[in-house]
Amino acid sequence: MRRRTFMHLTxxxxxxxxxxxxxxxxTGRTLVLLHLKGANDGLNTLIPFDxxxxxxxxxKIALPKSEAIEMGDSAVGPLGLHQRxxxxxASFNNDLAVLPGVGYPSQNRSHFKSVKLWATGSDGIRANxxxxxxxxxxxxxxxxxxxxxxxxxxxxxxxxxxGNGRYLSMARLSQLTGLNVSKSMEQSNxxxxxxxxxxxxxxxxxxxxxxxxxxxxxxxxxxxxGELSAQLTEVIRLISSGxxxxxxxxxLDGFDTHEGQLWRHPRLLEELSQSLAAFRxxxxxxxxxxxxxxxxxxxxxRRAGENGSEGTDHGTANTHFVMGGKVxxxxxxxxxxxxxxxxxxxxxxxxxxxxxxxxSSHWWGDPLAWAEYSDPRLAGLLRV
Length: 384
Hints:
It is built from 8 helices and 12 strands. The longest helix has 26 residues, at 261-286. The protein has one domain (3-13, 26-378): Alkaline Phosphatase, subunit A (3-Layer(aba) Sandwich). By secondary structure, the chain is α/β, with parallel strands linked by helices. It starts with a helix and ends in a 21-residue tail after the last helix. Helix 6 (227-241) runs parallel beside helix 7 (261-286).
């Protein structure tokens, strides 16, 4: 193998030879983490279109009622999802949950730092070292019972940080074809032994995945064009092939809308909603929607007020989505008040780690994970 390829692949795979705790029966469930990279503007995604403060804060980029799909009332008045998300119409109040006001204390506004905080379940006060879900996944799934504990389809392994299981970064599953690591690597010291073990396991894992992917079913619904759609296509292939990869990570980039938001943001939301709608339809047709859960996240939200470039700068609270066959659709939590800002920012109304607790407890069956962040408003989110 070329040195560059070798270093990329060995660095992408973390291995754990023993996994602490218990291992429950595999339910076939998959969690898909969708990073809205750059930080989506939640205020123009879930729109308080009749709110006077919203219109004052955003005199040029506030959206009218005609551009919103009405979702219900709130403390800030009626709310509506951006009309460019209409492709998800079948999911509204069915299997799509809308969570406004998601954030954490002492918001950090650095893209790089905030991604790490979300990946590890941290906040601006304290930072954790380990990915937020690796303990729960590694307790539930013994390494020998699955192909991988997690896979990143966009190249980032941040959410699997410091995990002891098998985690693979692979931008396209076609890269697995023909991958074979030689067993004859020099074993002159402990470091090279470790590298050999990891690369050999990578080779074996890749070959096992390739064999299962050859049995992946053809997608019954055509996926739209776009980078997110391409990644979600690979997720569907893995699920339908029978390969067990309990956690997968995908990304839609471009949400850092400091300027020209009125034309940039709607196109992103349309790509997001069309990709998710096709993803949902395929998994329903293939019989895997009930075992799939998708959650969005982002570094932070956007400022409540617009800037001088008809865009928005880095802010705090944001709107996120959870969808899947076991999701009870609807709105959970409260939209932040726009007449009670702190330094020009919305005050978050839900700690994002409450979502982590709900997923860990009700999806993975690990009631101890993130228990201190349990939020009764999310008690009915999942039908499990």
